[in-house]
Amino acid sequence: MSYTIYLSGEIHSDWREQIQQGITLLNLDIEVLGPITDHDSSDHVGVEILGAEEHSFWKDHKAAKINALRTQSYISRSDIVVIRFGDKYRQWNAAFDAGTANGLGIPVIVMHAPELTHALKEVDATALAVTETPQQVIEILAYISQK
Questions:
Q1: Residue 22: what pLDDT?
Q2: What is the C-alpha to C-alpha distance for residues 114 and 135, in angstroms, rounded to an integer?
Q3: Domain coordinates of the chain in residue numbers?
């Protein structure tokens, strides 16, 4: 069976690459989609395309909407959404992605360190699996890909 997954959340570590490498190593039939992970490109896309803004609120607003176009489109094409919450930065957009996926009936796998469990209890409650490592996600993907 073929799957499409969307990798959402934290962009400051190599967790996406680890999952992609695991998929490749196990020869799983999985297409991987994700956000623009270059922070500056993501933050400035609105003003680069639609023009400069005097106030940072509107700069961020433009970028958020354009990034949401990509994210919502990719999530709607996905069979599974994997969401990583990191320790250093709060990924509020990833919590939104969990809600979007759940609203569309798309299963969610959440990944975060154990110390974030309390803060993410509502997000975790909507997930079909709560993991701590990319390896656990790879093992889940391998398991569900078995024929």
A1: 98
A2: 15
A3: 3-38+79-144
